[in-house]
Amino acid sequence: MQKRIAIVILNWNGAEMLRQYLPTVLKCSADMAEVVVADNASSDMSVELLRKDFPQVRLLLLDKNWGFAEGYNKALQQIEAEYYVLLNSDVEVTQGWLMPLLDFMDNNADVAACQPKLRAMARKGAFEYAGASGGFIDRYGYPFCRGRIFDTVEDDRGQYDEPCDVHWATGACLFIRSADYWRCGGLDSRLFAHNEEIDLCWRLRIMGRRIVCLPSSVVYHVGGGTLPKGNPMKTFLNFRNNLTMLYKNLPDDALSHVMRMRWWLDYLAAMKMLLLERNLGECKAVIRGRKAFKKWRADFAADRRAMLEVRKNTQDARKEHSLPERLPYAILWQYYVRGKKHYSDL
Description:
The longest helix has 25 residues, at 252-276. This protein has twelve helices and 13 strands. Helix 6 (196-206) runs parallel beside helix 7 (232-249). The model has no long low-confidence stretch (mean pLDDT 93). Helices cover 42% and strands 19% of the residues. The chain is of the alpha/beta class. Strands 1, 2, 3, 4, 5, 6, 11, 12 and 13 form a nine-stranded mixed beta sheet that branches. The protein is globular.
């Protein structure tokens, strides 16, 4: 009998991660879900490892490295399931992690996607940077989480254990209805990687669908496995994609102000990287990201018009400015000037 859930791991040269963490996925999930690995044309021993040591896993071979976004789109087109779980290869799941997510989704038809609580593999008592206990953005598009603001990662003392509506759920472990995934067009393949799950969740929010974090489910994430923090390519993708996401999804009455402020804030960040951190590569990456956004912005005009039309026709979206998960203040000001380092301080 076909299982309702497909856990899909997108892999690129991650043989060691698969060797270490795939067994926990199979042990804790295989009775409830089909486990699929989609390989982005790896050049390491990933495919040989999967065929030899994990024959029970369904293997999808993609013809090249399509990146995170299009890699998942191409893989999910080949999978039939009511729910998808987009799971990073460097995630260790725990016994019973799927049941709270499935139960909640089954009982809340207005929820498009959810995530568990993510703790750090390196320090299991702390939240993990990429997802923590649910994601938010401030008025200028800067993402942060319950449990992590910029580089301040909190210890998990149960302070964020209540289920919570969020603006975005992490792509490291994203439980999503297949119908909603395709209804909003899936991940935007043009972004390649970084910010693509925030863009996806924002489009779902504009459509009136909810995104939720369920901390009763817990997984552990290594993080930074492909492009570590501080990598100029990662910085380039983050700045380019974040600006693109804002252009696509902001309402008309916010777009001009936000983009003007981001010009100043982005160049301030570039100067900080150059003068204080002595990192010319990172500085150049910010500037390249802005230039790349400007060059391709017109390619997203149709996407923006589509979201504006959806916003007009969706009752919940008309209240978007008052939704708690898109916060009205500048997180940079709260963090650096007012000294509010924890989500609970905001």
